[in-house]
Amino acid sequence: MTKGILVAMMATTLTFSQAFSCDMHGKGGFAPENNLQIAVGDKAANNMTKELFLDAITRVSSAYEPIVAQKDGKLIMNNRWDDNTVNASAQQSGKNWQVNMYGGLARHPLVTVDGFMMVVCHELGHHIGGAPRYNRNTDWGSNEGQADYFASLKCMRRVLENEDNISAIANMTIDADVVTQCSSVYKSESEIALCKRVSMAGKSLAMLLGDLGGNSNVKFNTPDVSKVAKTNDNHPQAQCRLDTYFQGSLCDKSITDDVSKTDAIQGTCIKKDGYTAGVRPLCWYKPGVGEI
User: Fold this and answer.
1) What is the full DSSP assignment across 108-138?
2) How far apart are CA 77 and CA 100, in angstroms?
3) Looking at residue 271, what DSSP letter applies?
4) pLDDT tens-digit readout, 166-193
5) Kind of pairing, strands 96-102 and 88-93?
6) Sign of the alpha-carbon torsion through 261, 262, 264, 266
7) Which helix (H) or strand (E) holds 64?
8) Second label for 121, Cα 20 to 30 Å away, from 1, 17, 60, 202?
9) Nearest of 14, 103, 19, 104 to residue 57 by alpha carbon
């Protein structure tokens, strides 16, 4: 009897742990584990307000609640403005698919409003970002690199596609490589502007991630040239993550061409289809034979 109870407890523990893509308190979430805290009114904080924080979250949730419902889930946004944690996290409990957003991350001086919105997209991406998922596609959550790729490939583009992105980027300083590559992939002025906007949101996050790791000097023109022997499920380095955000913004696959939980090719750009831009970086992703 005791042995049976022990086995049952172990099974319950395993199921519970697999239901979490990120630690409930954000320790193992969007960013690597860190102890940084940024309170409301902190001198180090940016100009983020609670209204902007909630608006960014609502724009993503409004676009994706119906899509999550079609996938038999219920999207729950836990908006923790007063939580000083510099991170974000996601979890699943049955049909409840939760995204936990913390005010500390939103207040970080390197995080823009668009950058924060991309974090919301990243956490949503753990739920619906497709393959590759954790542990060789056996866990519920898309891995870190795929959640990054989904954020710029599908989510940010869906949320921002009907906005006046030309006006939105009018006062931004856009990196030269972004200007060149977005203009080479997209034809219309509005599509190019959207590509630039999403790319710069990615830079905001990569600088944050680099800063947390001791080096925020990430650049579009210095891509990570390392190649993994197998797909890395965990957090790539900051430069690699910038490369992923950038490539997602350069993939011209339609946002309605959905990704798949089991097929890493569906809805993405791969070299076999003739793509040179928009392909997942090799610094975290090992493509299958059918992709090369």
Assistant:
1) -TT--HHHHHHHHHHHHHHHHS-SSBHHHHT
2) 6
3) G
4) 999 999 999 999 999 999 999 999 999 9
5) antiparallel
6) negative
7) helix 50-70
8) 17
9) 103
How far is Cα 21 from Cα 141, in angstroms, rounded to an integer? 6
Phi, psi of 250, rounded to the nearest 5 degrees: -90, -5
pLDDT in tens, 89-147: 999 999 999 999 999 999 999 999 999 999 999 999 999 999 999 999 999 999 999 99
Q: Assess whether pLDDT exceeds 50 at residue 48.
A: yes
Residue type at position 184: S
Q: How far is CA 56 from CA 7, 51, 61, 120, in A?
A: 44, 9, 9, 8
Contact 224, 283 (CB under 8 A): yes
Exposure string for 150-168, b = 16+ CB within 10 A, e = fewer: bbbbbbbbbbbeeeebeee
User: Is 78 buried (19+), middle (13-18) or exposed (0-12) by CB count in 10 A?
Assistant: middle
Lookup result for tokens 């949101």:
201
What's the angle, vertex CA 36, arms to CA 134 and CA 247, rounded to 5? 45
State the SS3 of 211-227.
Answer: HHCCCCCCCCCCCCCCC
